[in-house]
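Quarterly update from the structural biology core.
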Amino acid sequence: MFARVDKMFKHLKLSSVDGSRDRAIGAYIRADLLIIDDFAIKDMKREQADDIYEIILERYGKKSTILTSARSPEEWQALFPDPIIGNSVLDKLCHSSYQVEMTGPSLREQNKPYKKYSSLKKN
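Predicted structure, tokenized:
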């Protein structure tokens, strides 16, 4: 399962309203591989941190999880409203994880559909 973190949080919030939260969060927990994109882009609200905690806690040691983020893991804890929850989540995430750091120029920059005007020659 692939989920952008903001859409996952929105889905879980809406599921709390309509009474389908257990089913919704269960889908994230049961997925053999859960990919959470754009993790830790901004501060989390308490309910978001609680949701991440529940998902990671239930998946820990049982299922594979991939997080993508523009921030390094060292910056993540500060984004949790409760440092204890943040520490617990990060401990479980980092305990048996591999970190792949991507460096160098962005592929988005290389694959622009247009050329910079400054590089065009004048006639």
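Strands lie at 2-4, 33-37, 64-67.
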